[in-house]
Amino acid sequence: MPVDTKRVRGPEESQSPLLFVRADAGAKPRSLQHRTDGRSAAEPRPVFARAGLVSQADGSVYAEYGRSKVLCAVYGPRESDRKEERRLSGATLGCEFRFAPFSCKMRAAWIQGTLEKEYSSIMEQSLQPAICLHKYPRSQIEVYVMVLENDGSTLAAALTCASIALAEAGIEMFDVVVGCSLRQCGDVSLLDPSAAEEYSASSSQEVDNGSLTVALLPTLNQISGLVSKGEWQEQTSVEAIKACVEGCQKLYSVVQQCLTKSVKRKNPQLVSKA
């Protein structure tokens, strides 16, 4: 019989992936003050990041935010393909954010969706103020982010990973960009929310029920990007932004350690001299 070589055949005997899902996965917290993973409301998830894993890219990083897993690759700066872009005085930045088909509970399509396009645009606007684009005329810098597992706060993780990958690629920057998200449920602010906390609706009918993502330049202490959804009171929104800024400052040390290890790995002579 003819064989369809373009189709990927699965194993003859297989098990449902639902058998390996934890019993508490997707469960709602009994109380907003006591989250399912044991964190307090103002405590971010543990972060692991390592740079230089994609050999074909000029800069790359793999990061884990709890169960969220993000891979980022940076290519450039290189000569622009479009003639109209060559006339610009500085480089052009292009960002592409994608969810892997297996990253969500419902299988994602290969075609870039509306949310992915929105996140790509937000990344581009948030990263531009941090890059010295004027030093790379008639060139382009491309940033690709792939979410391997989505457990919430993926936009904030993508912003941080993209900044690390840009610095690892040797692109001159005014400062790195660190992202942090917050979920507001009434009087409770959940920093770095998981997927269950991010999409669950508040039990009360109060006004403050939304989400917030902040992109911060920690050394310059400037906000390069802010995305807010839902209904907020003025005082609550100000406190939420302050909480996200503090969360970004906490993650800044992780970014510094990741870049320091990358430099030592590329230049082992620096370690021997020290």
Q: What can you see in these coordinates?
A:
With 274 residues, this protein is α+β, with helices and mostly antiparallel strands. The protein has one domain (38-261): GHMP Kinase, N-terminal domain (Ribosomal Protein S5, domain 2, 2-Layer Sandwich), CATH 3.30.230. 28% of the residues lie in helices and 27% in strands. The chain has helices spanning 83-86, 114-127, 154-168, 195-199, 234-266, 268-273; strands at residues 47-51, 59-65, 68-79, 92-99, 139-149, 178-185, 188-191, 209-217, 222-231. It has a five-stranded mixed beta sheet. Strands 7-6-8-9 form a four-stranded antiparallel beta sheet. Helix 2 (114-127) crosses helix 3 (154-168) and helix 3 (154-168) packs parallel to helix 5.
Summarize the topology.
Elements: E1 47-51, E2 59-65, E3 68-79, H1 83-86, E4 92-99, H2 114-127, E5 139-149, H3 154-168, E6 178-185, E7 188-191, H4 195-199, E8 209-217, E9 222-231, H5 234-266, H6 268-273
Helix pairs in contact: 2-3, 3-5
